[in-house]
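ENCODED BACKBONE
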Amino acid sequence: MDPVEILNWKVVKRVLIPLHVFALANWLLHSPILANVQAQGDSNFESRSAEAEAAENGGKTEAAIGLYRRALAENPHWAKGWKSLGILLADRKEYVQAREAFQNLVKVKPKSGDAWALLGICEFRMGEYDLSVEHTERARSFEFTDDTLFRLVYYYSAAVMVLRGDFDTALVRLLLLSREGVASDELIEAYGLASLRIRALPGGEAPALRAVVMRVGTLVLRSRDMAVNDARTAFEKLIAEDTRMPGPRYAYGKYLASHALYAEACEAFQAELQNSPNDPMTRLQIATIRAHHLNDPSGGLELAREAVKSAPELFAGHLILGRILLKLGQTHQAVEELEVAAQQAPESVMVHTTLLNAYNKANRKDGAAREQEILQRLQRLEASLKGHGSDAVMEKGRPARGEACDPDVQ
């Protein structure tokens, strides 16, 4: 045989063999046998999932859990199945297995606020508070279809903030919940703990404190709807009952400042310092009032420095100290403090706006341009969330994503 013919035959064989394999695979793909197998699989899953939902609706929890697991083994991309299975397990306090279900749920629906919320709430119940906050905060970046889950995200994240000692941010979130019409003993208790600055979860405070926690929480919650004179009388009566208790005067100072009664608010915070001499936020409240409302920035400077020294991890301290230094014309020192605040709160619009102002005053064009880009990115992010999830309704007062409460007196 001619070498050219042999070569051509080998080429034909190399082409024909894959063509035959392809033809066989194509026939199998469209054959009635494979179609019947696929249809049978779909039928089994549909039957199993329907049985699982029926068992759940009928209150047959044990049977429902088993059926959900079998259905999910056949179709691990069934989001509703993972959600239902996780909720059923969490109701039985089987949190480890519930978390596994919710972890699978967020894999299937990574941009669902509901999915991340369920995972974070489950982790809260397990006592894994750092993970809980991480995942509930992520939930706030996405759309919610369940308003109850949305509210629970705010409640549980506020509860963790109270436990960590971030009382002011917790109070902002609790206030937003009350504006949403939420009213419960748990909410009142969280209000009381945050207002009294007690680092505990609702239900975790000493039994002897519960009565006063509930009283303070009720007053703080109701005070925004009370006449000013009535609220002042109620706060003063509460303070007079135990003048040594830390917390009530701070809550009273916040109330007075929110009604622009700045001199009296400053007096309340000064009195609070006698009971809580090491509290940095009390110092920052006084420093802010003096610098921005009583036209005495020098009077607030030392207090702000003391607060930063005692709690250097608190971004609000660096921010307020930076603002005061800027007001006093000490621009270089202000920039240093504000840069620390930006590192600690990288998604805070408030911090980056103040830092941009400081860079402009210092004529640092590169820094100003960088801050402008960061602010534009954050503003685009907020705009993209309009109509999606918790941050979509900022006009109702909910805080922006990643934004802690304004440390200015509220």
About this structure: Residues 1-41, 384-410 have pLDDT under 50 and may be disordered. Residues 3-29 form the longest helix (27 residues). Residues 11 and 327 are 83 Å apart (CA to CA). Residues 297-404 form a domain with the Serine Threonine Protein Phosphatase 5, Tetratricopeptide repeat fold (CATH 1.25.40.10).
